[in-house]
Design goal:
Cyclic Phosphodiesterase, Chain: A; alpha+beta; 328 residues
């Protein structure tokens, strides 16, 4: 995929090194009118145009890391164990909403992890999910499915079904707002995660106070609607469901379960309690105050099957953007 077109001469480093720089022409003020001299010696005031931004789908091309082993070797993954054993013909899959924090947001999230680490007083060690082993920023996500294992015969039909379910949900692009930082024990692994819980917000300008930590059972939001469609598709393929109450026997979903994972640990940590309140008792700063002012735009859903990521966009102008379906 071509991002920027360059001329052939720019791509030849040997030529660039061998050719000397042209000599700067001396300006002659004696023979030229004053107006012409001023024009030639005054630098241009316009700034050089910046490179065009990367397209949204560019990140999907590099969403998977290089496979280091086909067997479960926790030593290669900081002690983590593979949730889905590698089986030839099976495709590890996941449905999620992706978030690429800005540089400023990234710094704030790093600060939250540092505050949480101090709260643990050395009794546990947190491993950040914000950067790769080489220090590059990583995208975060809000899960809409459990870790899934699709067979070769299922993967194409699953992608078609999940795409149809998401697009027919009539969910328009929306925003989510972070509000609470807690530790959460994963039911699928031996890890405990430091998570930032999120709620949908209809208007990114509404930041006067954090949203309520509990919601009405009858309330329907874009997140719950998308989750219901994903769970319905997973159920039709006899796959595990996400955040389904009563073990999946009931229709209700825990609205307060949606979160973004920031770090993880294999050690025992106090689960369920707020790690950082709106104001730290030993600090004049309010670590979460800045986070409460964020609005994370959700324009689509990612479906990852094996190492292939498909972006399913939410249609602008669909019902639900202004309360026609969703009650906030």
């Amino acid at each position: 995929m071509g991002l920027v077109d360059y001329s052939d001469s720019d791509s030849d480093p040997d030529q660039a090194l061998s050719e000397p720089e042209p000599k700067r022409r001396k300006s002659s003020t004696a023979s030229a009118p004053s107006r012409t001299s001023t024009t030639e010696t005054t630098p241009p005031t316009g700034r050089k145009p910046s490179l065009p931004p990367l397209p949204d789908h560019f990140h999907d091309l590099y969403a998977s890391t290089v496979r280091q082993s086909v067997v479960d070797d926790p030593s290669l993954h900081h002690g983590r164990k593979r949730l889905i054993p590698h089986v030839v013909g099976n495709w590890p899959s996941h449905v999620y909403i992706e978030w690429h924090p800005s540089a400023e947001e990234h710094r704030t999230l790093v600060s939250l992890i540092q505050h949480a680490q101090k709260k643990l007083r050395g009794e546990a060690t947190l491993t950040s999910l914000l950067t790769s082993d080489l220090g590059a920023p990583l995208p975060l996500h809000i899960s809409l499915s459990r870790p899934l294992a699709l067979t070769t015969a299922q993967k194409d039909r699953f992608l078609e079904a999940i795409t149809t379910g998401i697009r027919s949900s009539l969910v328009a692009p929306f925003y989510v707002k972070p509000h609470t930082l807690k530790f959460w024990k994963s039911p699928d692994s031996n890890r405990t995660f430091l998570v930032l819980y999120v709620h949908p917000c209809p208007d990114p300008q509404i930041f006067s106070s954090p949203p309520p930590t509990t919601t009405s059972k009858a309330q329907t939001t874009p997140l719950t609607t998308l989750l219901h469609r994903c769970n319905s598709t997973a159920r039709s393929f006899d796959l595990p469901l996400l955040y389904q109450k009563n073990g999946g026997s009931g229709p209700e979903t825990d609205e307060d379960a949606f979160h973004v994972s920031l770090a993880w640990t294999l050690d025992d940590v106090p689960e369920g309690e707020e790690v950082i309140g709106s104001r730290d008792e030993r600090d004049d700063k309010a670590p979460l105050d800045e986070v409460h002012g964020w609005a994370v735009a959700v324009a689509g859903v990612k479906v990852k099957i094996g190492n292939v990521v498909t972006h399913v966009g939410l249609e602008k102008g669909c019902a639900g953007g202004e309360g026609e379906i969703f009650s906030w």
